[in-house]
Amino acid sequence: MPISGFIMSVAAGYPPNYFDLYQVPQFIQKNEAMAKFFFETHGIVGNITIALVAIHLLAALKHHFINRDDVLTRMLR
Questions:
Q1: Which end of the chain has the least Cβ crowding within 10 Å, N or C?
Q2: What is the average pLDDT value for the chain, to the nearest integer?
């Protein structure tokens, strides 16, 4: 996710600027097709990450309320 966002930004011609202290050098020439590809990749990876977190949460709740085991209790310690 961070790598696709970084490459997307640099390829679009907007290199990251960290707190106005350091600007990353433009190591990739401005490339609209590459920026678009990594923009879409960034979105897809973000959606997959959200889905995995939601599935993990639902599985923990299932173990707690349906299976009635101590998985959730052990995770929260």
A1: C
A2: 92
